[in-house]
Specification:
Layout: H1 3-22, E1 36-43, E2 53-64, E3 68-77, E4 82-90, E5 96-97, E6 106-107, E7 120-127, E8 130-146, E9 149-162, E10 169-177, E11 182-192, E12 196-209
Antiparallel strand pairs: 1-2, 1-12, 2-3, 3-4, 5-6, 7-8, 8-9, 9-10, 10-11, 11-12
Amino acid sequence: MNLRSTSMTLAVAAMGFCVPVCAQTVERPVYKVGDTWTYRHTEGPTPGSPGTYISSETKTVTAVRPDEFELSVVMTSDRGERKTSTQLSSLDFNDFAQPNPNVPRQEVKTWIWPVEVGRTWKYEVPVASGTQVWVARVKAWEDLDVPAGKFRAVRVERELIANPNPLVGRVVTVWYSPEAKANVKIQIHGTYEGSHTTTNYTRELESYNVQ
């Protein structure tokens, strides 16, 4: 076999491998009461604050309603301090925003299903000073190794492209696993008032139990 034939064979083989992986479409996850995820948070070091803050977060689905589901959230710091709260999410795995009690809550559409590589959408986040505009880009499938194990996850990058405060910027990268029905890793980079940079915020899945 000559070099040209070999190259063509490899190209065809590569295309054949890519079709089921690169064209994979992810449908909206369905949650049930009792589904649980535990994450490890690592924040820092950042300029002016050389230390690293570590905490854990456990989320458990406590109710599923026609248009939303409810989670209990337990945060535990590396010093053993615990804080418990309740979180509501839409059935599309999106949070709600309500900058003040005088306006209705708004679903922040960080996810629009189905998800597939190459898809892009914009979404708005209402804040006290106005409205942020973000763009989400579905970039690629990747093999990821986190404390909870090895996952095949789709990487989505979210960029803050318009903000009432132009000195504040964010890029959020998430890796979503259909197996875990959740993000298995999140990284955040950004600026606060143009000077303070978050250079190392990471959240990784430590364990999970889904039905």
